[in-house]
Amino acid sequence: KVPHQRLVVKLEAHVISGNVTTWIRNWLSNRKQRVCINRAKSEWATVKSGVPQGSVLGPLLFIIYINDIDTDIISKISKFADDTELCSRAMEDTDRQSLQEDLHKLDWADKWQMSFNVDKCTVLHIGCHNRRYDYQMGNNALTEVEQQRDLGIIINQDLKWNKQVNTSYNKANKVLGFISRNFHYKSQEIMLPLYTALVR
Questions:
Q1: Which Pfam families does the UniProt record give (predicted)?
Q2: Is this model's pTM higher than 0.85 or not?
Q3: Quick one: three-class SS letters along 2-22?
Q4: 3-state SS string over 106-143?
Q5: Closest CA relative to residue 164, chosen from 177, 174, 149
Q6: Same-domain check for residues 76 and 126
């Protein structure tokens, strides 16, 4: 969750100041929330962090907040929404140590109160001759995996696509079966839009 006061600091660092910063600060201030389950309601609580989901400004403010996460990072870093990936070619021990140092530099998260969920952080060694190395984030050892889903695509450590192809094939088959069972008239005018929207 994005701390509001620190977000204002980021906005000012991007020379977004004056009336715009004041307006955003007022937009985020004095927000309250509570939990409702059936007829039971909790007490109101002040929201001190996070950007309003579903708003136009929300994604932009989040991007501004995490934009400098790659400061001093040598390895290639990829950011998509709240997912972050660190990649590097590790041919020698010095390369692996450099990648580990970059992982240590991600203490940015502690400074800006955006801690990584280490339990969801994994290591994927690509290539059969890639010597395994035990990487850490802080004091936590990262789990090594044989495959990783990246934006919906399953990537194996041997870069073979069998798992991705089989998963996509099975998913498409299930959707085609659903269409076949639930649509009696199978004219091209009906089937083509369904296939384009749900299967392809």
A1: RVT_1
A2: no
A3: CEHHHHHHHHHHCCCCCHHHH
A4: CCHHHHCCCCCCHHHCEECCCCCCCCCCCCEECCEECE
A5: 149
A6: yes
Q: In the 8-state DSSP scheme, what is residue 91?
A: S
| Crossing angle of the two packed helices 162-182 and 188-198, in degrees rounded to 10 | 140
pLDDT in tens, 98-109: 999 999 888 888
State the Cα–Cα distance between residues 59 and 144, nearest whole angstrom: 31
Helix (H) or strand (E) holding 56: none
Residues 63 and 75 in one domain: no
* Pair (110, 148) in one structural domain: yes
Classify the C-alpha dihedral 145-146-151-152 as positive or negative.
Answer: negative
The set of residues, in sequence order, having a beta carbon less than 8 Å from that of 21 and lying 6+ positions away, is 8, 11, 12
Express each pLDDT in 67-87 by its tens digit: 888 888 999 988 887 788 899
Count the domains in the chain: 3
Contacts of 94 (CB under 8 A, 6+ apart): none
